[in-house]
Design brief:
Largest sheet: none
CATH class: Mainly Alpha
Strand content: under 5%
Number of strands: 0
Helix content: over 70%
Length: about 190
């Protein structure tokens, strides 16, 4: 009499324990994604703070390149205001990085700017920030991968769909802007 009762209890408790453990794992992964996105957001804000100083420094030397500076300013504002999902943010960030790369090409025409101490410091900080954004993006995408794997593999996919866990987007970068903006110094 005791053995069938134990078997019945195990048959009931094991699935319940599995559901609870899987649910908790999904919540933890979702929270890792939110934390990783907050880290990306912090680095993007750092970039946004550097851009006006960099633009102002370059503008002093290359005043006639007005449209590039206006475009960077517009894209910076657009990126700062973007509160969308990672794919929307990535699209805006790709445009901003491309505009920064164009500005760095303009720098090539101004030898005195390339040796300006303020410009060199700002340029170094921007490259450092881009490296930090790249590291944060890799961490975020790794968490998204783990979360998606958990949501899409059987049998945890049943629990994910049953409790309404939604797929998350990767923070992808357009291949054309994968390199951090930098100026080549001759």
């Amino acid at each position: 009499m005791l053995v069938p009762l134990v078997i019945a209890a195990v048959c009931i408790l094991l699935p319940i324990i599995y559901v609870i453990a899987t649910y908790n794992a999904l919540v933890a992964l979702r929270n890792h994604i939110r934390d990783a996105w907050a880290n990306i957001d912090t680095e993007l804000k750092r970039r946004y703070e550097l851009i006006p100083n960099l633009v102002a420094t370059v503008k002093g030397y290359a005043a006639h390149e007005k449209e590039i500076f206006e475009r960077i300013t517009q894209l910076r504002s657009q990126c700062m205001g973007n509160q969308g999902n990672p794919s929307q943010q990535a699209a805006d960030e790709n445009q901003l990085v491309a505009a920064l790369q164009k500005m760095m090409l303009v720098v090539e025409n101004y030898p005195q700017l390339k040796s300006d101490k303020n410009f060199l410091e700002l340029q170094h900080e921007l490259v450092n920030t881009e490296d930090r954004i790249q590291a944060a993006r890799r961490f975020f995408n790794g968490n998204v991968r783990d979360y998606r794997n958990k949501c899409e593999t059987f049998p945890s996919s049943l629990i994910a769909s049953g409790f309404g866990f939604q797929s998350e987007d990767y923070f992808n970068v357009d291949p054309a802007v994968r390199e951090a903006p930098s100026a080549k110094f001759s």
